[in-house]
Amino acid sequence: MTGLKILAGIACAFAFITLPYWANQGVMFLAGLALIEIIFALAWNLLFGFTGLASFGHAAFFAIGAYLTGYVLKAAIGIPFLLLILASGLAGAVVAAITGLVLLRRTTGIHLAIFTLALAEVLRLFIGYSTALGREDGLASIPRPVLELGFTTIQITSGNAYYWFICVMALVLGGLLWVICHGPFGRVLVSIRQDPERTAFMGVNVRGYRLTAFILSGGFSATAGSLYAPWAQIVTPETGHWIHSTQPMLAALLGGAHSFWGPVIGTLVFSVINYLTRNLIGLSEVVIGVVLLVIVLAAPNGIVGLIKMIRRRFFSTPGSSPAGTRS
Amino acid sequence: MGLIDIAFALINGLATGMAIFLVAAGLTLIFGILKILNFAHGAFFMIGAYLSYTIIGSNPSSIWLFVVAALVGGVVVAALGYVTDLVVLRRLRNVDEAFMLIATFAVLLVCSGVVKLIWGVNYASINPPPGIDGAVIIGNLFIPSYSIFVIVCGVAIFVGLDFAIRRTWIGKMLQSIAVDNWMAALLGINVPVALTATVIVSFLLAGVAGGLLLANQTLSPILGDSYLLLAFMAVVIGGLGDVRGAFIAAILLGIIESSSSLIMPDMPGMATYLFVILFLLAKPQGLFGDHGI
Hints:
Chain A is mainly alpha-helical and 327 residues long. Chain A contains 13 helices and two strands; from the N terminus they run H-H-H-H-H-E-E-H-H-H-H-H-H-H-H. Chain A has a domain of 219 residues. With 293 residues, chain B is mainly alpha-helical. Chain B has one domain: ABC transporter involved in vitamin B12 uptake, BtuC (Orthogonal Bundle). At the A-B interface, helix 5, helix 10 and helix 12 of A face helix 4, helix 9 and helix 11 of B.
């Protein structure tokens, strides 16, 4: 089964990398967006699927990264692009650290959800009122940067080049998140999600781990936003809207929140639905809503859970992974 | 900033607060008893508004027609609530709350998609019916009579709901379910029927609110979002599931929202969220602490 999974992964990566050769510009743009949203969804799910904290305001971190990158690129200050991405991620992490220090002290569950929602709205309103950030119109015509690697410079100003750059970054960031989630750190997070009290009993600093997860999640979300700004070439306050915060949530739950690959599959499915229903306003929402309902009612563990269930039922392999462990 | 400004902001705030409460009432009811944070509430509020609009058009002829249209919208939305309960909510009674959240969000998506498909994405504006389209003038104070109408509606619904919950046997039954539904079932209360009834009443309130608040605002498919967020805040500040708390919290939020135009005129809306954050940091259990409805 692992072989099949690797094969699917390679096929998927191949499709994404060769996309500029066989798809039109519109599809390529959506594919780039999907890759960025995948990073965003993975970052959110580090917090929800692994640590058990649901943030409803993650679009705020995304917007921080997007606006910082967009603003600096437009102002042409001359900061190397990779450094700018790193700075955006750090900015998101710093904001996450400050808010996390205050919020995680006493709140989890529904209160955390409302807190993060309110904070994100404050940020979005602030951006909407800030003249330097273009008010409600946002920052338009953001230039795509030149990549300076020290020994060489790569032009990623063209659509294709920047698309491949997104592919590489998605691989790097996704890989980093994979390592974080599957290492000892990720295992502690999972045990916190399953039973915070017992984990604390074993001598784990629960609040410290939660805060670290929050910071990492905020940082990666901001990095995703940073990749977004030059790709869309326009950043509006809508990127920080709470509707955008629900995007990674839906993707993660659709794909399966307790699996690392769930958000990836969920985002891809969403992108395909959006693309197929793009001609009739309102239809995409109905289709996505109905699909979500069916998933929640029929397969509460998302698509990954559904695949596992089918596999268990039809290909019941001896010694297959017991319930609760992740792939 | 004279006395008149302050009085005007207060009246305005009261009207805004009552508008928030009209949406929050059903939301807090369903939370108190089913423990569901219903994302779809705003969408059903919007459907109620669109149904009323379809009945009365842009220029309603009388105040009675306006109210009747709101009630009709409410009844239709209540029927939709019954269907939603049957198809979705009932099946998810015993699963993790995250799935409930995503299920109601899915319902929200379906509803707003259907609204776009039926009524389109164009804006519509509706005038208040004759009788409440003018203003009452007391000295220098100018009060839109539609604001008074909204305040009266909000207070009426609050009084009715509060009476039903605290003084009638149905209310006492619901309170016992809110505290411990397993124990309530053991005592012979038909919990599933009570839960379904709660869903229906909550949706009825959403639909009626949509019709009543229809005038003086632009009707568009994003109408639900703006109210939903403020109503959420009122429900949380009021103490989740507490109708009285939600009523007071809605008034507070309304007054802050309207007076922020005096305090922070450059940034309307900001003060409300800052207040919510500070309040919840100081008092995370809400106004009166957690104790059922």
